[in-house]
## 1
Amino acid sequence: MADSMQPQNKPNSKYPKCKYHWTKGVVVNNADKEAALGGGWADTPAAFEEFRGPRRARTAQHNPIKWVADWPVPGVTSDLRQRMKVELLRTDAAFWRSPDTPSAHLTTMREAFDGVAMVLFAAGILTESLLRNEIPQLVWDSAIAAGWWRCASETPQGIFPERLGHYWVWRDDSIDWQRLFHDETEVWLAGLPAFSPTPAVTPDLGVRLAAAADFEMISHDEQAARIGIGRTTYFEVKAGRGGKKARRRAEEYLRRLQITQEPD
């Protein structure tokens, strides 16, 4: 009502005004200056409050597997999707044990990336395109749905200027987001040419290692360290590959946990 009563020949009568961003605030003196700010701004700092400070407890609305069933990738069977869900749920559980640890959200997203890639690698359908495009997109959707990344909304809002998958988001430009999964991608790409799609050795070892990780509630990196093998070797072993020494160490680790292979 107040705006409608402003003199029509004074379009800037509501200026100067304060505008607030995720990391700063400014004073603008006219509409052109306000428009030039771009996205990510609000008229009040209160617009950002629910996305700051300690995270609230996890609720039923947090769902890391929300987008798995509809992930539009050919060749991903219902069984593979179920295995992907297990990987995402495992990383989600690890995140919520210490959700406000610095970089917890980034570490969890990288773990989720590796988990999904491992499932597809073991199935023989992992490709460079999936590593660079579809898997990062699924991880971002899962991260937002799970609450790992909370600066996002399913509907357009001024403070969320970027469309990313199923959401609108704000991402801090101090991080090179294009390289978020760079190291993980390079590791998987290095392994792609070396192995055939069909697992040839200990086909259930990866399943038993996954069960052990669930039992101990640990990440892939933690499990690799407990086995005593490197990260790349670990994923090769989980896919039914790897050298004899690495597989033997994995079997010894499982025996220590009394998780043995069931007879046929």
## 2
Amino acid sequence: MFLGQLRKAALRQAQGERCCLGQSHLYAIAIGSNRTHGRFGRPTGVVEAAIARLDADFDLFDASRIILNPAHGGAGRDFANAVALVEGELEPPEMLRRLKAIERDFGRRRGRRWGSRVLDLDILAWSGGHWRSHGLTIPHASLEQRTFALDPLASIAPGWPVRGALTARHLAHRLAQRAPRR
């Protein structure tokens, strides 16, 4: 079913058709946390709670396992990360607004770009293909360089087309090949 939906969306995109209201879309949502939460506890608990919230607010299609990753930049503590596939009728800008509202509900406040955060939700990809508007680029501009997002996506949607014919599985493999050997 999942790949069938993606193929239909790709066909519509190739034919120059834009999304329609009332049409259901699949979204790949990156979930991250590296701060404890008073109610949900450690970052892994925050990610689990975020997945439950996405399930309550949208139709949860699938979710990856939670992985632990070193923080990037000045973000401090290590992150718990996962990817969820959700289905909904929202267009990308409205989906982004809803995700930012969920972040605020979890206690996220605007601050340093690379600072620690209770919850970070990003749209990695959607079944409509590419989207570009002020403040939103889909697929996520950094997806191809982020193993903490690409690996969970490839684990639950390996055939998701990210760039042309390159799928999440292809790009995760390429990124793994570039990683330094230990």
## 3
Amino acid sequence: MECNLLPAACVIVTGCLVPGVNWGRTPTAIMSVVRLSLSLFGTVAVISAVLASATIWLLVTDPVTVADAVESGQVSPLVQALAGVLYDAFKGILRYL
């Protein structure tokens, strides 16, 4: 099977091996790596979105804590407040289940 793409794209997109190149992997193994990387990307994206929304919520509901943390340069009060917001949100979600 002839592939006109770059070697990595040829293997991922079409599942064919470039003639004369020994990749050492089967197309099934490559597809499992692709699935793993997409799952990892999705997990990191969800965690980032949750932390960003919790930080915005903290800025709106408790600006004094955020201002004190920024002024003093210590992130400990900010992290404690952020953990409290995430804990309360998680507790609220579990009430519905």
